[in-house]
Amino acid sequence: MNLIWLLLRASKLQVAIAILTGLVSGGTTARLIALINSAVSGNFTSNIVWYFAALAFVVLINSIICQVLLINLSQDAVYRLRLRLSQGVLSSPLRHLEQLGANQLMTTLTEDVATLSTTVYAIPFICVDIAIIAGCLLYLGSLSIGVFAFTIGFIMVALGTIQLLINRAQHFLTLARVDQDRLFKHFSTIVDGIKELKLHAARRQDFFSQELQKSAATSRDHNATALITFSIGSNWSNLLFFILIGLLLFGLPQLIAIAPSVLSGYILTFTYLMLPMQSILDKLQQLSRASVALQKIERMGLTLAAQKEDTGTRGHKDTGIFSTLELQQVTHAYPGEVEDSNFILGPLDLTFHPGQLVFIVGGNGSGKSTLAKLITGLYIPESGQIRLDGKVITDENREWYRQHFSVVFSDFYLFDRILGISNLDFDKQAQEYLQQLQLSHKVKIENGKLSTTALSQGQRKRLALLTAYLENRSIYLFDEWASDQDPVFRDIFYKEILLNLKQQGKTVLVISHDDHYFHLADRVIKLDYGKVEYDQRIIKS
Ligand SMILES: Nc1ncnc2c1ncn2[C@@H]1O[C@H](COP(=O)(O)OP(=O)(O)OP(=O)(O)O)[C@@H](O)[C@H]1O
């Protein structure tokens, strides 16, 4: 049913036209069968051939129109779903996405959407088959009410037994979908941990037999049980067809009088109906799989919608100059598995100004990166306030607030095209920065596209710095940027690049462990277990 809603969301009018043409096609098919039955019973009229040809033509045209409409609709529905899901992910709070996990997001965006797109393609054909069945049933009803009532009663009971089998199969498909998430995680482990797995035979063997093989076997068993149940259902429905024909031929005539033309009409129609019925049953397992995928997508889509952030920047165009950025009693907590193990950052009171070079230091796990995500507006404070020039940052203006920052995180992502910067001198400027960052011999930039990103980690970080440079925003934040740089470039970073940004009036926040450069800062903030141990101004001689 949800799949039909997916189509309806795309266009109600087109769905209505498709249903109408499908019904005409089904009704006309039934009329054709009636005509054949009447011809077989010896009732010929002079223009029967023309009538027959006209009916066949109407069936052809209507089923083509119906299927073309539904194919377009189904593909459009999948297109919209892909965009909606991607938008949903883009507009969800970072913390929520971190909690969902990369594996779950990727399986849904790839596997579930792929399952849906192949199934939605089958829907048009199922619709035409249903229309034919409906048309044929109408015809059977017009032949004899008594026989029709018996047939419908039989079909209801038959459908009940088939539904039981489908429910069982669906249960195993749902379990198989959970296995799919687990398998996807193992595949990510193979790709991301390939070096560690190759270097340690016992670890590799352990991972293979205890993790991957077990999950793959469970997935195989659940899928096999589901498919076998569908196969039993399909064969059972075939048998039910023959039982019905047998009852109509040999059983019912013993109880009530049935005219031979009515009987032949029923037998002819059911023989014809076996084809569309079989086709629908064959597609049932595909439909059930899609229904499980859609449930998963909708569930994720709903949670995404519920957590949706306001991503508009309307009414807040001034992303340039500011004079004060304040954090007042700001806190953030990561819920731990054990109540006492929760990490809590803050409450913190910090104020930053333009032209300040601030080092944020502290031991591993002291909360530096968490503070970076809070300052940049990626995490929403659990309590306290962030204010920019006295303006409190809320859900309405958080997107605008984030546009003040250029950041290179320690787990940065490097795009192979410089996105979102429209500057006429762009390539020339980028080329100059490439030279400054000593990368011009390795990378070229044409129309914003980087010639390569296949570089060393340190060089890739320099490219990320280049993007930050080009963004030309008022607050810069670098999370352990220099940790991968050689001593010469590290020196250039601290003594030239940072000071140059400061001279331009930027606020520069640097998370660092390089204590022999701390004297260059205007201020050093040290964190310890989520609290400020000291916030020290450096007096320059
Ligand atoms: N995604 C997360 N989910 C749960 N807890 C987290 C998450 N990220 C960090 N933490 C916890 O928060 C604490 C602070 O982490 P954070 O990354 O901010 O420290 P850090 O000072 O940047 O450390 P490092 O110098 O090692 O990069 C750690 O105890 C960590 O266990």
Taken from the alpha-carbon principal axes, the silhouette is elongated
- Runs with pLDDT <50, length 5+? none
- Kindly provide the radius of gyration, computed on alpha-carbon positions and rounded to a whole number of angstroms: 34 Å
Biggest β-sheet: strands ordered side by side in the sheet = 6-9-10-3-11-12
Number of domains: 2
Report the average pLDDT across residues. 86
Straight-line distance between termini: 75 Å
Just name the CATH architecture of the largest domain: Up-down Bundle
Membrane topology: Multi-pass membrane protein
Subcellular location: Cell membrane
Domain ABC transmembrane type-1: 16-289
Transmembrane segments: 48-73, 120-141, 147-166, 224-249
